[in-house]
Amino acid sequence: MSEETEKVYTDYFFDEPAYNTHDGGYVPLERMKVPEQRLNVPPLLEPDRETETDIYYTLVAQAGETQLLPGLPTKTWGYNTSLLGKTPVFKKGKHIHITLKNELPELTTFHWHGLNVSGPIVDGGCHAPIYPGETKQIDFTLDQPAATTWLHAHPCPSTAEQVWHGLAAMTIIQDDVEAKLPFPRHYGVDDIPLVLQDRRFHENNQWDYRADYDPDGVQGPTALIDGTVNPYFDVTTQKVRLRILDGANRREWRLHFSDDLTFTQIASDGGILPAPVKLTKLMLTCAERAEIIVDFGNYHNGDVVTLYSDDVPIVHFRIGDYQPDHTVIPDHLVDIPNPEPTPNLPIKKVVMSGMDEEVMLDGKKFDMQRIDAKQKVGDVAIWDITNTNDMTGGMVHPFHMHGCQFLVLSRNGHEPYPNEHGFKDTVGVNPGETVRIKVWFNLPGVYMYHCHIIEHEDGGMMAQIEAFDPDHPKTYDLMDMDTLAKAFAKERGIDVKDLWMAGMDSYEKMGMKM
Ligand SMILES: [Cu+2]
Question: What band does 510 get if pLDDT is binned at 50, 70 and 90?
Answer without folding.
Answer: confident
